[in-house]
Amino acid sequence: MRKIVVAALVIIVAAFAAYTVVREPAVPPFGPAAAAEWPAYGGDPGGSRYSPLAQIAKDNVRGLRVAWTFHTGDVSDGSKWRNKSAFEATPIVVDGTMYVPSAFNRVIALDPATGVQKWAYDPKIDKNAPGGDGLICRGVSTWLDPDRSAGQPCRRRIYIATLDARLIALDAATGSPCADFGSAGQVRLGDDVGEKERGEYHITSPPAVVRDRVVVGSAIDDNGRVDMPRGVVRAFDARTGKLAWSWDPIPRRPTDPGRDTWAGDSANTTGAGNAWSILSADSQRDLVFIPTGSASVDHYGGERKGNNLFANSVVALRGSTGEMVWYFQTVHHDTWDYDVPSQPTLVEIKGHPAVVTATKTGMLFTFDRETGKPLFPVEERPVPQSDVLGEQLSPTQPFPTAPPPLVPHSLRASDAFGVAYFDRKGCAEKIKNSRNQGIFTPLSFQGSLDYPGIAGGTNWGSVAYDPQRSYVLVNSTRMPFVIGLAPRDKINEIHQQHPDAEIGRMRGTPYIMWREPLFSKLKLPCIQPPWGVLSAVDMTNGTIKWQVPLGTIRDLAPVPIPWKTGTPNMGGPIATAGGVIFIAAAMDNYLRAFDTDTGQELWKGRLPAGGQATPMTYSVNGKQYVVIAAGGHGKLGTKLGDSVVAFALQ
Prior knowledge:
The protein is mainly beta and about 650 residues long.
């Protein structure tokens, strides 16, 4: 995606920098702080990313300054080790200590008031191991053993799941592995999942903790072959590490629910469907919520005809047993890589327990938390069909009637963007020459327009929920791709025709896949700005309250011009009782604060590297801090680094 930023002609985008946003009248902010910690990756086990802290508010947020900075020392630009790093972590704060994982899976304990290190644990992963995601770790989780008293070893535990597929339990006080967990503090996760090539099975997101179970999914490389590793979700005893249950999103046995959505024996030969993103837990109801991804291979389904349950679904499992309670499939028979990428967020809407899920398609799905029934109606609408031999798409796809999509679902040649006539004309021709029938356009040999693109819509940054306003806050990317198929013997020809395209070999199918972002000759996106937005959605009635561009070309152009074109983004927002939203995520190096009621940008703080992570907030000794991991993103192309930066009022 770094090509978005190439060339000085980005400067000319100034003409498009002014956008008018219709805003609703403000409502009074919520009251004083009620909690001081951030004990889970998403703020709480349900991922609301909301803090009742209100010391930092609309009227004083401009007073934020850097309070402390900590350097992990863990960064890779691909020169020493084969993979680049992406510092996507969100720290947790519990019992007066901050715990943050580095891009190398090291767990570091810090004093949250000063940033001074207390201890560090290094699992010593192989940083040269192959794998499609790079060096990434989004977070850690914690559990307090009710049977142990203060001062006993491993009374509080910190769990991390690693890139080399281990689940490790650490003593929160010392950083030492908990000897009673698994074998010397760790459980191996990759031994029985069908991994054939080292590194294709790994974990990038934190485990979920529901009662005394630690539940973990997995990340599996895309488009390698049909029989990729199994995307099994497993729960382990929080104290012993003993396997409690496992659930495979692909129904392997003939008697399994959903087996009839897989033609023939394809359920036995297909892999993935894995939950690579963040899981949510509701311990009161003994539920864990699983966002699942595409079955392998991602861009061709001829070897797995049918709707392919329970891939591309939100699934509620009983935390104690793994029994399926309910499910909803957001994409049938996915061939667009439209995983469910975001954490299912547990909220209350009009006093009703609910689950909100943001998707790569830019659509928000809202479910009853206990039954899975959509709280806003969902319609099955006809979608175009494939002309590729062997492919058989679903005739319909689900569309929620509310809220409306947060990103456009179509792109016409007349919508083409360019800073010069020849540039705009070239973009229009690319759009005309692609198969283009709106969202869910089937892949084709000529190349098909994929919009929203493979990164979203919304990705793993997920949403934040402000319970006082019943607002979902969510950032999204507007970046189309062109994706095509070709017979396997045409790979050299495809390399020549599309020299910058990513190639997926899709072994076990008749075809290869190629895909590339829809750029102009000047390496700019072929669509009108904004290329990234932040939205507020009123969940009481399913309407969009406001949308504003997120990010500028400040760090993309050869000169620092801060025009608000919006940019592709990775990471997510948090909401606070002070009526302030904090988010970085964009491709300029800033942490920003927005007015929750209006979307007005209130403040921005300069970061030493890209902020492709979700911030968090907490209070120590009466002072509220906002913290962001600023280490950039190797794939997105932002400036790399190793900083954990804390801001506070001065």
